[in-house]
Amino acid sequence: MTTARIAPQTRFYTTGGIDLAVHEWACEGSGAPLVFAHATGFHGRVWDAIAERFPAHPVYAIDLRGHGLSRAAPIDDWRVLASDVADFLKQSGITGAVGIGHSMGAHTLLQVAADNPGRFAKLVLFDPVILAPEFYAPSDALYTADNPHPAIRRKRDFASAEAMIERFSSRDPYDLFDARVFEDYCRHGLVPAVSGAGMELACAPEVEASVYASSRSNPGILDAATRVDIPALVVRAKYTTLNDFKSSPTWPELAARMPQGSDLYRPDMTHFHPFQDPADAARIIAEFIGE
Q1: Is the Cβ–Cβ distance between 107 and 213 less than 8 Å?
Q2: For position 240, what pLDDT does the model report?
Q3: In the CATH scheme, what is the code of domain 9-150+211-288?
Q4: Structure-derived torsion over alpha carbons of residues 38, 259, 33, 125, reported in degrees to the nearest 10
């Protein structure tokens, strides 16, 4: 593997009333396509440090709806994310890909694989937000307009990417991040502010809060897992409590639900494994796909 690779080209795919941004790296070899999907509040470019290590593969890193350059309103159903990704794969003609997801992105790719056989040949799922069956049993929303998720109070405006880097570099959990990944998160996680002065978060606080609020919206994900009959690796971090962003939210029995699922437990890592140690995450991916 190597880290020498030019910057991606960003293309837009019209789907579900939005323009879905996908960052694409040209292929320098004959490897299978790699399709990356990110966690809540982030964007496709947080995968740069890992994508660059696979120059023999065409790479597609998606900005999920409402994140990065995929401008959109808040959501109330996670299945719309899977619909967006499935539509992108259909438009681009991608089949036999390796899907690599983190958190919400891993949940999304699993649903896409279940609904669209043949689009993926393998999955690597870093701490997917797929919980035990009892999590999905209550019908009440986790958060409401009167009691929104704390992400709604996230600082929105910054003078520059440098100001964001300076503000958050020593704060939890960002101080866990690999320096390159943290800088990519900040530099590609801002867009020009609507006011015309400075920058603002690409993933608006109300969008991020809506994702957390609707995290019970896809109770069928556990059934979907039983229909994913391809090699699938679930990489789980240490669990502490669901109220801790650094804790693994993943049901330990998830891999066993999949006909060809396997489980890799990494208690030495937090939920932010791909951000903490992108080299280790890349190694896991490479070994799983036989490189």
Answers
A1: no
A2: 87
A3: 3.40.50.1820
A4: 20
For 172, phi then psi, to 5°, come to -75, 135
- Compute the Cα dihedral for 95, 101, 103, 105 and give only its sign: negative
State the Cα–Cα distance between residues 192 and 101, nearest whole angstrom: 27
**Average pLDDT along the chain:** 94
- In terms of Cα–Cα distance, which of 44, 61, 108 is closest to 80? 108
Residue 1 to residues 9, 25, 32, 283, 291: CA-CA distances in angstroms?
A: 21, 15, 15, 9, 9
- Name the pTM for this structure: 0.96
Contact criterion met (CB below 8 Å) for 74 and 207: yes
Q: Rounded to whole angstroms, how far apart are CA atoms 186 and 161?
A: 6
Q: Name the 3-class secondary structure at 126.
A: strand
Q: Which residue has the tokens 């995968």?
A: 47
Phi, psi dihedrals of residue 63, rounded to the nearest 5°: -90, 105
Helix boundaries (H) for the chain:
48-51, 79-92, 104-115, 133-136, 161-168, 179-188, 205-213, 221-226, 254-257, 273-276, 278-288
pLDDT at 3: 47
Selection from 153, 131, 134 nearest residue 143 by Cα: 153
Task: Quote the CA–CA distance of 169 and 281 in Å, as a whole number.
Answer: 21
User: C-alpha angle 255/99/289, rounded to 5°?
Assistant: 80
Sequence ranges of the domains in the chain: 9-150+211-288
- Which distant-in-sequence residues (6+ apart) come within 8 Å of 211 by Cβ? 40, 41, 66, 75, 78, 104
Backbone angles phi, psi at 186, to 5 degrees: -70, -45
